[in-house]
C-alpha cells in the first residue's frame, strides 16, 4: 500500500504541525514559529530516522490519536505520556512500528505540556515560506489538526535509530530562566529590576505558543508614555501595562510596543515550553556571553 | 546612534527619526548583501533597527555607534500604487477631526506619498509614514473584533492596509482589492520596508 497518510481520529485540545520554523522573514511581519521544544522535536525525528528539519506533530496537554493508512514508524517524546498501538501499551521515547490501519493513541501528558510525534518520512504538508509549521499568531502554515484531517507523510529517509530509548529531560518542577538585562530595563524602576531578579513568579494559565505569561509582582515603570514599536526577539521578557512579564515564545509578534526588561537565554526556553500553569518561575540575571 | 545589546546575539540600533531608521535599514541590507554583515534578521521599526542572530554583536555595537549612514535617495525606491475606494466606516469621523469634508479628507490621503517604514502585526502589514503631523489620529479605545481584509486604516502617524481579516483598532477610511500578502509570490508581501506607496482613488471619490 502506497497511501502514506495519517487520519486524525482525535485531534486533542491543540495539535499542530511543527518543524524548525521560518526564520528570516521577521521584517515582513512573519513570526519564526516552529516547535516550542526544539530538542524534543529533533530527538523524535532522530529516533524514526528523519532529518532534523522533518515536520512533526506538537500536542498540548491531552495528546491525540491517529490511524496511519500504511505501516509507519513513530516516536513520541517531549512531555511524558502513555502511548498505545491497537489498544496495547507501546514505548514512549523509542521508535514504534504502527501497522497500516491500526490506531495510535497518545494520551494526556503525565508531566509537562507538549508531546512530540515524529513519523518516518515526516508530515508532508505543503511548506509556506520554507516551513510546514503552524503559526498561531498570523495563521500561516496548516490549521491546527481537527478530527478527520488527513495528513500526507513523506517517504522515509533512513532506517529508524537502533536504540531502545533515549534520555529526555524531565519537565521542570520549577523553572529557572537565565536572563540578560535590557534592552529597555531603564524603562523600569531599580526596585522593579530587583523584583524581577529576586521575587517569585508562577506560570499563568493564559500562556500559549505566543508567550509564557507569568503571575507575580507587577514591575513598576520608571518611564511612562509609549515606546515606539521595535523589533522583538525570541525569549524577550516583555512587560505590558499590567506589569506582569511575558516571555516571547516561537509564535511571538516580530515587532511590539511594550518595553523588554530582559531576554531569556535560548537554552532555557525548551523547559519554559514544558512548564505547567502554576509552576514556580525564577529569573536569574546573567552576564552577556 | 546607539546600539543596545539584546540577549546574547542581537542588537537594537536606536536612531532619532523614522527617516534615519529607514536609511540605516537600507545600509544594513547593503552590508549584508556584500557579505560584511552576517545576521539572520534585520527588522526595521519606528526608531530602531533590530539585528537578530548576529555573528559578532560586540564588534557591531562598536562599529555602528560611530558609523555614518548615507541617506537613501527617496526616488531610488520602488513605487507601488494601491487602488482605493474611500468608503471606510470611520472616514466621516476622521474628516471631521481634520476639519474637512469626507471628499477632501480622501484627497489629502490620496495626495500623500507614503513609505513603508516597517512591517509587523501580521504578515504583509506595513506601517506607512508620510501623513503630516496634523493628520495623525488616535486608535479606537476598543478595537473592532473583525476588520475586513483590504481595509485601509489610520492610527497615530501611520497608514496601514489589513492583509487579512483580523481584529483591529485603527480608523478605517477605505478599501483596496490589492493582494497584500500571497505566500506563493516572491516576495510574499506586496509592501516591504522602504517601498513608496500611493493610494489611487477608484470609483466615486
TrEMBL record, chain A:
Coiled coil: none annotated. Residues 27-289 form the Carboxyltransferase domain. The keyword ATP-binding applies. Gene3D superfamilies: Cyclophilin-like (2.40.100.10). Pfam families: CT_A_B. It comes from the Bacteria. Keywords: ATP-binding, Hydrolase, Nucleotide-binding. NCBIfam families: urea_amlyse_rel. This is KipI antagonist. It comes from Streptomyces cyanogenus. The gene is kipA.
Automatic annotation (TrEMBL), chain B:
SUPFAM superfamilies: Cyclophilin-like (SSF50891), PH0987 N-terminal domain-like (SSF160467). Keywords: ATP-binding, Hydrolase, Nucleotide-binding. It comes from the Bacteria. InterPro entries: CT_C_D, Cyclophilin-like_dom_sf, PxpB. Residues 1-191 form the Carboxyltransferase domain. This is Kinase A inhibitor. The gene is kipI.
Amino acid at each position: 500500500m502506497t497511501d502514506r497518510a495519517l487520519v486524525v481520529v482525535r485531534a486533542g485540545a491543540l495539535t499542530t504541525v511543527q518543524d524548525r520554523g521560518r526564520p528570516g522573514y521577521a521584517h515582513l511581519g512573519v513570526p519564526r514559529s516552529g516547535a516550542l521544544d526544539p530538542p524534543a522535536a529533533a530527538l523524535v525525528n532522530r529516533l524514526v530516522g528523519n532529518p532534523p528539519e522533518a515536520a512533526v506533530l506538537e500536542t498540548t496537554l491531552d495528546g491525540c490519536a491517529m490511524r496511519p493508512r500504511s505501516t509507519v514508524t513513530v516516536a513520541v517524546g517531549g512531555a511524558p505520556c502513555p502511548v498505545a498501538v491497537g489498544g496495547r501499551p507501546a514505548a514512549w521515547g523509542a521508535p514504534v512500528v504502527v501497522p497500516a490501519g491500526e490506531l495510535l493513541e497518545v494520551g494526556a501528558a503525565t508531566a509537562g505540556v507538549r508531546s512530540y510525534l515524529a513519523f518516518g518520512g515526516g508530515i508532508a504538508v505543503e511548506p509556506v515560506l520554507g516551513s510546514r509549521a503552524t503559526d498561531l499568531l498570523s495563521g500561516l502554515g496548516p490549521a491546527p489538526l481537527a478530527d478527520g484531517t488527513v495528513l500526507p507523510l513523506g517517504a522515509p529517509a533512513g532506517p529508524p535509530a537502533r536504540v531502545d530509548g533515549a534520555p529526555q529531560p524531565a519537565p521542570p518542577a520549577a523553572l529557572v530562566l537565565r536572563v540578560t538585562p535590557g534592552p529597555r530595563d531603564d524603562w523600569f524602576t531599580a526596585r522593579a529590576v530587583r523584583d524581577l531578579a529576586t521575587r517569585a513568579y508562577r506560570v499563568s494559565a493564559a500562556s500559549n505558543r505566543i508567550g509564557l505569561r507569568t503571575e507575580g509582582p507587577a514591575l513598576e515603570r520608571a518611564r511612562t508614555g509609549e515606546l515606539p514599536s521595535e523589533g522583538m526577539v525570541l525569549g524577550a521578557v516583555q512587560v505590558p501595562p499590567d506589569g506582569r512579564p511575558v516571555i516571547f515564545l516561537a509564535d511571538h509578534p516580530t515587532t511590539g510596543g511594550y518595553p523588554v526588561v530582559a531576554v531569556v537565554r535560548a537554552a532555557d526556553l525548551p523547559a519554559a515550553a514544558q512548564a505547567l500553569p502554576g509552576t514556580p518561575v525564577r529569573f536569574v540575571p546573567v552576564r552577556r556571553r | 546612534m546607539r546600539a543596545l545589546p539584546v540577549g546574547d546575539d542581537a542588537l537594537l540600533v536606536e536612531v532619532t527619526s523614522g527617516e534615519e531608521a529607514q536609511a540605516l535599514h537600507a545600509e544594513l541590507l547593503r552590508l549584508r548583501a556584500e557579505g560584511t554583515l552576517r545576521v539572520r534578521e534585520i527588522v526595521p521599526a519606528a526608531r530602531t533597527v533590530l539585528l537578530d542572530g548576529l555573528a559578532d554583536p560586540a564588534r557591531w555595537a562598536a562599529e555602528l555607534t560611530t558609523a555614518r549612514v548615507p541617506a537613501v535617495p527617496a526616488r531610488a525606491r520602488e513605487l507601488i500604487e494601491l487602488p482605493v475606494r474611500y468608503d471606510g466606516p470611520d472616514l466621516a469621523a476622521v474628516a471631521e477631526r481634520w476639519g474637512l469634508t469626507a471628499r477632501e479628507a480622501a484627497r489629502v490621503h490620496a495626495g500623500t506619498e507614503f513609505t513603508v517604514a516597517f512591517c509587523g502585526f501580521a504578515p504583509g502589514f506595513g506601517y506607512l509614514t508620510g501623513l503630516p503631523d496634523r493628520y495623525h489620529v488616535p486608535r479606537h479605545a476598543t478595537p473592532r473584533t473583525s476588520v475586513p481584509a483590504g481595509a485601509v486604516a489610520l492610527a497615530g502617524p501611520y497608514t496601514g492596509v489589513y492583509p487579512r481579516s483580523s481584529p483591529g483598532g485603527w480608523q478605517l477610511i477605505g478599501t483596496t482589492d490589492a493582494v497584500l500578502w500571497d505566500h506563493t509570490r516572491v516576495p510574499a508581501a506586496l509592501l516591504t520596508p522602504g517601498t513608496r506607496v500611493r493610494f489611487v482613488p477608484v470609483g466615486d471619490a
